[in-house]
Amino acid sequence: MATVLCSCGANYRVDDSKLGRTARCSKCGHMLLLRAREEETEPIPLAEPSPLADEIAAAAERSIEAERGLKSRAERRFAARPEDFGYAPGEEPAAGGRAPRGAGRGAPPGRYARFFQALGWNFFFIANPHNVAVIIGAWFVMGLLRLASFGGLLFIIGFILVNGWYCAFLFNTIGAAANGEEDLPKLGQAFEDLWEGAALPLLRYFVCWVLSVAPVALCLVYIASRVSQAQAMDLIDVAMGAIVYDDWSPFVSTLDARTVAMASSILLGLFLWPMLLLVAGLGGLFALVRVDLIAITIARTFPAYLATVVMIYGAFFLSALGGSFLAGRPGASMLAVGAVMLMVSIYLDVVAMRAIGLYYYHLKDRFAWSWG
What we know:
Layout: E1 2-5, E2 11-14, E3 22-24, E4 31-33, H1 51-69, H2 73-80, H3 111-121, H4 129-147, H5 152-178, H6 194-224, H7 229-245, H8 249-253, H9 257-283, H10 291-300, H11 302-327, H12 334-363
Antiparallel strand pairs: 1-2, 3-4
Helix pairs in contact: 3-11, 3-12, 4-5, 4-12, 5-6, 5-9, 5-12, 6-7, 6-9, 7-9, 9-11, 9-12, 11-12
């Protein structure tokens, strides 16, 4: 037997064999289809509110309220990236529960402050005994090359190999500093094989040099097309004197549109040279074609990159100044002066390369690309 329910509320007990037929309701007179009434089911109770869900909702509400309360740019930066102020994600400052209004005031130094501090201490890498041994080893190898300058094919081959090895050492120094290492790379790392240990680093260094002089080369081509051949040769001599011998006196004595354009193009190449070394050393030669990423990275990190450039050329200036001072000492032995100048030059080369690596180590999250 099945129970049939009419819309008026009347219930009828009907034999199962009659289900599907129609009949008239004796109460309201309407025709109804004889079908079994669906059994009522117990309503499924909703789950009780979870304490975790309440905590998540409350945390989201607090986050929204806190975001509305952030007034300064520094506070918004702290909320988004607390590690820039020296705090771990989720860690609150010691006082006030908010980031300071100044760039890190009352908090540990931020990214740029740590980088500038590292640049200042960069000159003291020599305090590490391991680094002293590496510098002495490099000085010994480069000194042997200079003593063996007797000419001939053998010297040319040795010159290429030793300078390639030195370029590999400089690129390895950039890589070590870019990884945050305090120790200089071991000299043996540059002797892995002839290609990786000498030829490829020398090629990378040469390509970086060519790209750094490309702006002045293009400038000279443009100017030479508008002046006589003699004037063009004079301009080339002036440019080579500035690039090779650091002789800027012609630019000072002759200030016109041509010399200003040439000087600007030379300075542009010098400005780009540290970034070219960094890209070639960490990313390889093919990474140098991404001029757009290089420009974006310099724009994003301009204060730090400018400080890196200043330190590099400041180191080179100190090297040249020290050489001039030693060479001008009366009665000084040329061999002794050359040995000291070589040691100072290698030391300041390492300072410059470490500055490039430290720039990447502290600012790599601002780079347009990454090498890990």
